[in-house]
Each structure stands twice: as C-alpha cells, then as structure tokens.
C-alpha cells in the first residue's frame, strides 16, 4: 500500500504541475498588436493579502472596445464597482469582509479559470474604468487562441514564483516516503524467513523445481500483497472521483487533474502488485548463506566499534559548534555543518551499538537481581547482539535527522522575514503604511481621510530629501492631533528631532523607511495641504495611519474604504509586513516537508518494528520452556517490551535529541517551522507505532507458547 500511494503521489504531482501550467497559459493575457480589432479589454495586475497569509493577485479589468474578452472562469462582465472572487478566497477572507472589499460581489470564478481549487484570485472592474495608458495594457484575448503576443507580466497568480520546482516536490515524495517504502518492502519479504527457508528446503528435497518454489512463494504472499494493492487502489480511486483535501497542509488535490492522467494513475496499483510479487519471488530464489542469516562474530569489527563510537561526540560537536569557528561566510559554514552531520550519521551506528551493549549488561543484572526472567533474557540478548538493536535505532534516528533538517532549511529560506516579524511582535498593527495605487485626486484623498475609522489619524512620512531622492532629514507631516497620537509636540510650523523618537510605532516606521542620518523634521499641516501632499507623494513617501489609543488599526476596514473612494484602492500593511507576507509560501511549503517526513518516519518505524518483532519471535522460541519454570506467559510480554518497544522508545528520545541538536545551527530563534510541536509529533509517531508492534509481538509469542505447552497443562 505504501508503494502504491507513493507512486500514485508521484503521478499526482506531475499531473497537478502539468494541469496548473495549462490553466495558467489559458488565462495569460495576449496584448493587442494593432488597433481596431474585434474587441479588447484593459487589464492591470495588482496584489493584496489577508492577515498573516500569502499574497494573491487582484486583476483590474475594464471593457475597452467592441466585444471585450473575459478571462477563463468569468462568465459575464461585472458592473462598474463590482468584483468576481475565487471560492477559496471568499472562504478564507470571510472574517475580513472580502466579499465587499473591492466592491459589490458579482459572482465567483469557475474552476476553469483557477490553477487549483485553493487558489485565491480576484477580478475587479473599477468604478471609473481604466486608462488606455501604461501601466494598463490593451488585451486582445486570453490564452493561445487569441491573436497577439503573450504578456506574462500581466498573468494573474503567483504560482510560478511561489511554488517549488516539480523535481523538488517529486524528490521530496520519493525520498521521504518512497525510500522508506522500499525499505519496508525489503524487510517484509524476509520477515518470517526462518520458517520459509525450512519449507523451501523441504520442497527441494521432495524434488520441487525453482518454478514450484516461486509459485509457492506467490501463493503465500498473494493475499496480503493483493490486499495492499486494493487499499492503495481505493485511495487512488477516491482521489480521482472527488477533490481530496490533504491533511495538515490544507491543500485540495483536484480530481480533474488526476483524471487527465487516469490510465497512468490506475496503472500504479497493478504495477506495484507485480513488482512486489516479483520481489517476493527473487527473495525466495536467491541463494542462501549456510549460516541461515547469522553472521560470524568479527573481532576486528568489535575492536573498531568503540573507536567509531568515540568519534560520535566529536562529529556531533563539529556539526553543532563547528560553523561558529569559520566566520560569517555562508559557504564555509554550510560545508562544515554538512561535514559534521555526515560524520554524525556515519558514527551513530557504532555509538548506538556500544551504548546498547552497555545497557544490556545493566538490564541483565537488574533482571537477575529481581528474578525477572524476561528482563534477564532481553538484557543478555541486547549485550550479546548489540548490532541488531543498534540497526533498529539508527534507521529511525537518521529519518528524524532528515526530517528536522528539511524543515529547518525550509525555515532558513524564509529568514528574510525575521526582522518584519520582530516589528510585528513589538507593535502589532497599531501603525499601518498605506500605499495608494495609481493617480489620486486631492478630492478623493480628502474623502478617504475624512472617512477613516474612528480614533484613527493620518500622517505622511518621507525619506531623506523629502521624497526627492537627495540627502537631508526625514520629514513627517501631520496636524496636531495626529502628531499627538505619536507623542510629538505640535510645532507652530516645523521642528527638528534628533535621535530615536519616544513612540515605538514611530521608531519602527523609521526603521522601514529609507533614510540617511537619524534626523527628522516634523511639519504641521492642515487637511487641505496634507491631502494634496498625500495624493501626489513620491515613491519613498508613505501614508501612515495610527490610532490615538495605540490599538490596532482595522486593516480590512481601511482596505475596503480605499477601494470605495480611490480609483484602484490601496495596500495597507504594518511596517515591514510585506517581507513577512513574501515569506509565507515557505511556511506553507514547510508543512509539506513536515507531513511527508512524519509519514516516512512512521513507515521506517513500522519497518524497524517488523525487524525487531521477527528477531524476537525467532529467538523467542527458546523462551517457550520458561512458561513451565515461571508458571505464566508474562515472560513473553516483558521480553517483547524490552526487545521491541524499548529500542523504539530509545530511538524516539535519542533520535529527537540528536536531530534537534543538528538542526539547531540551521534554525534560528525566529524560525517558526522547527517547533516543539514538531519534535513531539515525531516522537509520538515512533512511540505509537512501537506500542502497536510490541502488542503484536507479545500476542504472537504468547500464541506460539500456548501451542508448545503440553496438552492438559
């Protein structure tokens, strides 16, 4: 089943990427090459965002001449001052009143015009139309069928920029889920091999051929393999019949994309069925070693184990602290970090083996002193065969290391938003920077200022040179109530301020405004002058909104007001919040790394649990006579707990500690991706699977022991 879901996932990733690209091409505007066509549309692409969410496209459209074309997914022209929104945007922005932010709602965008069901997109027809001069463009149509030149810069949506490359997603699915699935297959085909080897020898002794052995193996494995293929096929069929919401990520997988590759996706369970049965046959016919799977004890290997184990703490310290000694250059730091991580992974098995052998001696003495037969047997076995336990622990620990490294590096890619998050933590949205789109008349700006939410004041902050691009002090314009809201004295005309201001909101605004020396000139203005300056302000000037009581300014209300009275609305965000919004895709994609990694950890834990269970049952047959000596079956449950559950418990604890330590130099204190919840989820996954495997192993061992006991007991 794991392999079926993995291969189906790879096919689904390809289908989604291809389908999304087809939809994007179909809605890409085509610029009109010559005037006088059958019809044309004016278009202009802007962006907006919801609080703490990623950006989305807001496309302004207006008929230009003739039969003006509409983009795919929009069935009719909205009236002036109306908007058409995607269903997912309406749902996500309901709390912010998104239905009325850009005007009256005229309908929803159909799926044919969206690159995926979860896309956020808005088409808006401005109340006063669009000018036929730049930055607007005259659009002759949409998609390859239109006559003209493609205009990728006018394409709605940010998927091509925000989404990772297809090969990266395929690598994540294949590496984090596919490789553990292959490991599970290799273990599964040899689980219970002792009994099958005896049966194979009997068939050969009776004159059976290789074909007979292969048919017997297929018959034995056919039922569970077929069940797994049917379960995988059911999951694939479900995803093809209806849109499937992926847990934890919130992503909705479009069934329409999968149906386009239906023959490929349906073929996956069949291919997996054949491949697994082929693996079973190969494992059955492969030549066996005379020792039946046991390895001769190597004195050389035994001598090297403590030496390699001694290198483990050295490699761990190199990975954790080594980058601090090579300066701030990211290249050498990354090289030292990766070298330390590689050394840690290579020396970890030896450290686990030495630790397991030492723990086995302690467990055996403890069991002997208290008369616990199961504990005594498990301790001596761990001391005698430390490599077996170490291999179980190492596989899971390496998986945890890969998981936390993937999440930590994902967070590192979004570290450019750390300063913006600091600003938001300090002042929240008690100050907003408003960027007006396009040319605005003094009258429209006056209306905007007069209709601001209650208790809200407006100021204008200009960088060095007052917006001219030259040197000089920063300039702050506002009337007396607005200046008082920032704890500034109201001058008769102007005043200079040297050094950092008292109000934290003004300090953060200054940090995010281009300036030279920290000198500010405060200028008192009346409403008429202020509206004129704000309407004609230069690019490095910012209209600032604050509340007199220091509370948060209502962002949604400001955006809706801007679209009501200004030609193309305005953006409104806290200082530096644009950087934070730009890093949101990394946060969303980090959820995929977490989900795939946890699935991989769970699969590897099942693999390790099956291995431990098989080893326990193979050696546990010798425990059957103890039921007579101990007078009960508790010895099997105790021994299974030490042999199956305790190694996985150690893997959960030690693996998380090592993985978190290795990820620490990569992550930062501002990293919101590598959290305690993630490490707890990984440990809980290992422990939950370990508990199930322990119950299974103890149940099977007890059943075997009951069959061994003489009748009448």
Shape: globular
Radius of gyration: 33 Å
Give the tally of β-strands: 17
Oligomer: single chain
Count of DSSP-assigned helices: 23
How widely separated are the two ends? 42 Å
Strand order of the largest sheet: 5-4-6-3-2-7-1-8
Largest sheet, if any?
8 strands, mixed
Spans of at least 5 consecutive residues whose pLDDT stays below 50 are 290-301
* Fraction in helix: 55-70%
Strand content is 5-15%
Characteristic terms for this protein:
eight-stranded mixed beta sheet, 713 residues, alpha+beta, single chain
Briefly say what this structure is.
By secondary structure, the protein is an alpha+beta fold.
Structure report:
With 713 residues, this protein is an alpha+beta fold. Helices cover 57% and strands 13% of the residues. The chain has 23 helices and 17 strands. The strands form 3 sheets. It has an 8-stranded mixed sheet. The protein has a 7-stranded mixed sheet with strand order 14-15-13-12-16-11-17, sandwiched between helices. The longest helix is centred in the middle third of the chain and has 41 residues, at 330-370. The chain starts with a helix and ends in a 5-residue tail after the last helix. The model is unreliable at 290-301 (pLDDT under 50).
